[in-house]
Amino acid sequence: MKRLLFVSSLLILMISACKKEKDNLLTANAGADQTVVPLELVELNGTATSSNEGYSILWSYDGDVPEEEIKFQDVNTLTPNFIPPVPGLYIFTLTISLDGQSNSDIVKVEAVGALDIGGTLSENLVLKNLEPDPEKPDYMISSDLVVPSGISCTIEDDGVVIQVQENTGIVIEQGGKFSNYDAMTGQGFETLFKSANGWKGILVQGGTLSLQNARLEMAGQSAFASYSEKGAVILTAGSILEHNFSNNVYSGSMATDFIMEAGVSADSVFTDNVLSNTIPLKVPFQYLSKVRDDNKFPSEYDYIHLIPKTDELETLTDNIFKMSGEKYFIDGNLHLGASLYIEKGTELYFKEGTGAILINGTIEIQDWTGSGPVIMDGLGSAPWKGIALVGNSRLSLKNTQLTNAGHGTFNTPLFQSEQPAAIYQANNYSLTVENTEIKNSGGYGIYYTGGENGILYFNLFNSIYQNTHFAAIRSTVGSLRYMLKKDHGNTFLMNDGVAAVLIEADEEFTEVQGTWPALGDDNYYLIDTDLKRFSDVSFKILAGAILKFTKDKQLIFDYEFADAFYFGAEGTPDNPIIFDSADPNAKWGGIRVNGLFIMKYCEIRNAGSNLLPDAPFPTNIFVNTDVQAAALPNQFKNCIISGSAGYGAIVNKWVQPGWDPGNPDNNIVFDDNALGDIFYISD
User: Fold this and answer.
1) Distance between CA atoms of 187 and 291, rounded to whole angstroms?
2) On the CB side of 549, how many CA atoms lie within 13 Å of its CA?
3) Residue 327's pLDDT band (boundaries 50, 70, 90)?
4) Among 76, 105, 172, 473, which residue is least crowded by beta carbons within 10 Å?
């Protein structure tokens, strides 16, 4: 009995030992814990698992991210894989089973840091918000991210943070596309481009860019190998700017915030952006119509850089441009056939040696909007050519400081000017200069050529002309009556020997008429043509006016039968009217009056260089009237006649006491006249 019990016990012990040995072989090993980068393929390693053959394998997942999003593959093998879509902790359990027995082991995989997306893309790339912490990057660009033809890189989540390493950037090649635009909301996903020490920026070379609601920090640090100029966002010719470039914030840009070359397809507008660089924009002039006035510029910046059409045979037409109180630089001659409206407070600078040519175009100061004067100058006070008007062009300057213009003439295929001037008007259309200062012109202030046939409209009031190299205003004979009104209110601060107003002949001579006002202080009209009146028009010169004639030039006021118009030169004791020679070493021709006239408090000096029409001798003034004129109330009183190369005055037999220069009651003073004071023609 004892022997049987012993044998049974031994059998039980042997069975128990075999079972323990089998259990010991069924050992799951899920591998070592791992630290990985989001969006990279991760392989789990259960190959250290030990067991007899024939056991089953099953991996299970436990985590906050749904299993279908991690793309967990090969879960019945010892080496499954998955892709962590976001940073975080991913926990997996390996379970092996055999003959009703099982054993399990756990492995932890932590996804941390940003995904490196540098290099040339070979397939479309979709960027998501991977990192829950908004301060940490989702992606890292460690080398230039190149989006080639046929490939797109799109951002499809708010809060995507892209860390860009120093001296790297994004290149969108021809046919490639980079976009953060959300078609459902019609605006871009919120995106942050950041860098510790600065980055190159975004270069679009023939590709397509859509960017809204993005923040670009410290871009424009260095140039791309394929483009020499630095900029935070650059679009070259042939590129496409798709959708509005809007609600983007530049912060600490190390070069121009936004550069667009001519030839970019951009029907979209530039609106509601925050800019940071000293040169915020560099764009073609024609894109100015799409730059809205809700953009925010730095409190201190140099200018908005505008590139006019580089082909000098082209004129900007069919558009309306507006400058809204910002600072602008025009980098070349501007041929403008469109309308440019400028608010008060705007500063407009031109490249040295260039200017604006209006060819059926308009520049108008909108003095009811904005505050402060409009500044027009060369960049860095450089000399520039000024503004020229051709065809049906209109220039309206109000509350403007036009400085350092008039240096050089225009000589482009579309227009050539004859003289340098701050404003060169080669048309007959419209010019307003009001409450404006024209200063330091290298030529004339305003040069009017006489223009073409058409409407003639001048409004020159209350402006200052200072330090112009030539006359402040150049006019043809027949046009001055339109340019300077009696109450013009202009101030002329001229250098010694420089006339305030130059009068030259019309291409087709137009007679002198209208009213010439005084020019203030010692400022004078320089007359470099004969002044003639030959039809029923009046000509009046107001008190204080000074007229200086070049050699041999004359003032001839002819009479016609039944003429009711007259020549009037009525000075005052304090403001006499002066007729003199422009050259102290040369005489001028003098005055011939044949008709009604009134001359009071006039000084007629240094004439008689040649014979006036029908005069027998040289003289300062020749009064050659007839019976009818003698019966009307002509007056010639309180005048001084001096320095004649011939007689002081020559008068015919119809002289009446009211204007007889020899009548003591008329107080005519003669002095230093070479042939005598008065010569009377008896018949």
Assistant:
1) 18
2) 24
3) very high
4) 76
